[in-house]
Each structure stands twice: as C-alpha cells, then as structure tokens.
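Field reference: sequence -> structure
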Amino acid sequence: MKITYIFHSGFAVETGTSVLVFDYWKDPASVIPAILSSGKRIYVFSSHFHEDHFSREIFSWRDSRHSIRPDDRRSGITYILSKDILKHGRARREEADVWLAKGGFWDDGNIKVAAAGSNDSGVSWIVTAEGRRIFHAGDLNNWYARFLTDDFQGGLVRSTETGKMVDPAREEKLYLGELKDIRKVADSFDIVMFPVDGRIGNGYTKGARQFISMFGVSLFIPMHFSTSGFASSWRMKEFTDAAGIPFWSIGREGESIVLPDPSGMAL
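Structure field:
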C-alpha cells in the first residue's frame, strides 16, 4: 500500500487494485494525473462541503480519464460524498455514485466504507481495503482546545475564525461524543489521517492526543496544516512516539510512503 500526500487534508492511498483519494482541494505537486492514467479503480471521497475538503474539479476527472482510457465506458471512478455537500448545493445528486451521512455504510466487494460523525461538518471516513482499516477524520477535531486551560471557568468565547460565540467545553464534549460513537464501529485503525492544525493555538495537538488515547493506531498521519506549515504538524510526533505509534513527518506535497505488508510497516 502506497500513501501520497496531495495537499492540506488530501491524500491518495494506492492498493494493489485501487486508488482512494480523500478530500481533494489542490494539487501543487501534480499527483492526480498519474492516478488518472493508471489502470486502477479510483474511489474519490469528500468528507464535507468546505472548500478546503471538496472541489468540483473532481468531477472533471471522469472526462479526463475517459480521454486517457476511451475503452473504459464508466471511467473507473466512483464518487463517495458526504450528504452535506448535496444539502449545501455544492453538487447535484447524479454527480456522485454514493451519498452517505453519519451511520451510512457502503460495500462494493472491493472496499467497505462507513461514514462516521464529525463535530464540525459532514462526516469522517472508515474505509477497509486490502485488509487494512483506514480512518480519515475530515474536520473532526477538538477545535477550541486552546481555551480549555486549567484556569478555564466555562462560558462563551468568540471564535476568531467564524466570529461566532462558542462554548469550548460543550464543543469538546461533542467531539468526545463522536469518538465514542466511532468506537462502536471500530476501536483500532491501521492508518489514521487526522488534523494537527497550528492555527488552533496552544494545545492544537489535543484533539489528536485524545484520539490516540481512545483508539489503537498503527500509523498516524497529520493533516490540515497547510497554513501553519509542515513543521507545525511534527509537534504531534512527541506524543505518538510516547505511545509507540509510528508517525509520518510529511515534508512536501507529493511525498509518499510505502507500507509493504499489514504485519510490518516500514517507514
């Protein structure tokens, strides 16, 4: 299995027969053309409607692939999208093959997909492929962790991102509630892609730390750090090292790692 970092929260996970593309936004290293020219089945996932997780560009891939492989009538691409993308009018129903909300499942005999929840928008993804269980968090995270200091007395604070008043303690409770719901589906993952976003401020690794404390994780991959930078995501390695969890210190767009077999990951 080969994993390639595309950008922000976008990844391509290549198996022996398929390529799974998660939360495509931009492709500064031109990863996608090689995927489209391959003969493998492509599954495209978008966890929610935010522009940094969903781009309508993905729908052009079907025509691009058909021009490359005109003998393939269906283009070999399956679009699996969160229903909130439909709700917000970012796509038409017929443009995707599968629409899922939290609690939804889909299985085509090649991969199995479960849509788990998010405390932000849309869903997180649990995908089983070639005997490995993969988790992509989407925007699931403890986004207001910086306010939850030891001296926090409760109450509302203003979000610098949205301008809205939020209750950090309530938001954390919602986040932890989603983790509990995910544990009802799976309690361990071979691969986890999870936000480590320095824009949160102090404690920006807290959500990821809470996740690895509740689940077995064989490989942790940071994401959602395009604004704060690659080095900011490496802060999480201290905590994965302490837990004995391999960590991918991504250093550039287009970088890849290969996991040779399920029993022994070599980074």
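Note: The radius of gyration is 18 Å.
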